[in-house]
Specification:
Elements: E1 3-7, E2 10-12, E3 18-25, E4 33-39, E5 46-51, E6 58-60, E7 68-73, E8 78-83, E9 92-99, E10 113-114, E11 118-122
Parallel strand pairs: 2-11
Antiparallel strand pairs: 1-3, 3-8, 4-5, 4-9, 5-6, 7-8, 9-10, 9-11
Length: 124
């Protein structure tokens, strides 16, 4: 069964850190680009970071550059998103998604697999 499972979300104070995990099963994650999306209440789902297939090149939207780091461990079939210097505006449900192709744009269309999401809340 093909599945993506996110974990690692939670409540953190502004300036804090969290590491999200996206574990794949039923397919080989190395062959897929993985994008982390987030969706805040009342807004659409938008991509924030992508790890390309094979070489694992990393891409970020401007709002998270220098604060978020995406990485992958192909042996564990898992992609991570290390989030630091978190801000209240980072509060959202975070999803990972896989596409059998290169990293594209930041819109959610065209992905092959999605996880169920993990809540990240940044608040004092």
């Amino acid at each position: 069964q093909v599945q993506l499972v996110e974990s690692g979300g939670g409540l953190v104070q502004p300036g804090g850190s969290l590491r999200l995990s996206c574990a794949a099963s039923g397919f080989t994650l190395e062959h897929y680009a993985i994008t982390w999306f987030r969706q805040a209440p009342g807004t659409g789902r938008v991509g924030v970071s992508c790890s390309s297939s094979y070489r694992g090149s990393a891409y970020y939207v401007d709002s998270v550059k220098g604060r978020f780091t995406i990485s992958r461990d192909n042996a564990k079939n898992t992609v991570y998103l290390q989030m630091s210097s978190l801000k209240p505006e980072d509060t959202a449900v975070y999803y990972c998604a896989a596409v059998a192709g290169p990293c594209g744009g930041w819109s959610p269309g065209g992905y092959d697999y999605w996880g169920q999401g993990t809540q990240v809340t940044v608040s004092s």
